[in-house]
Amino acid sequence: MTDQVLQDQIAYYRARAGEYDEWFYRVGRYDWGAERNAQWFAEVETVYQALRSVGKIGSALELAVGTGNFTKELAAIAEHVTALDASEEVMAINRDKVKSANITYKQADLFNWQPDAQYDLVFMSFWLSHVPPEKLDTFLETVRRATKVGGKVFMVDSLRDQTRTSTASNHADYDPESVYHTRKLNDGQEYTIVKVFYDEALVAKLAEHGFAATYHTSGDYFWWAVGVKE
Asked: The domain 2-229: what is its CATH number?
């Protein structure tokens, strides 16, 4: 079932490309009112500041770049960014939004992709949660091989939000017994995706793959982890 779901997940994000920023910018089905929206954006800024604190670097690799909400931050701190995503549709939005000459975009299915270079920073936002648990070790090994010794990995993703305001108003609650979840587009089309909520136990998992890491939370909505390859 997993491989079928992963193909459905790719199809979902391709179809959702034009809607994705409604989630990030709290529009339409994702608008939970002024107070909750303000908290969301404050927590986004907290994560941005954490990424900016990495400082200036040479090369960055961004996995599952999406529509560019973090790509623009990476382009500001890195001399060059290699940006990968399985969806041409989201990369087109990313290019138009970020408009940076120091980014190289490449289409890639991250479950089949293998690195051909090493980077000072490997970054991913809202991607690790879409990696099935049975594929996590293989994926993190790929990340390890893509990172220079002394280089960093930076991950940001969703907390299991107890207020239920991080997702669309017409989405069902996450089933704690399953990593498979149904997601809807604005037109009602439904897809199955993987959604895993990683907690501080991720630090030990990263250590297994050669990263000395720390885990942080912004409040209700996001976690981030930063690791150095030893």
From this structure: 3.40.50.150
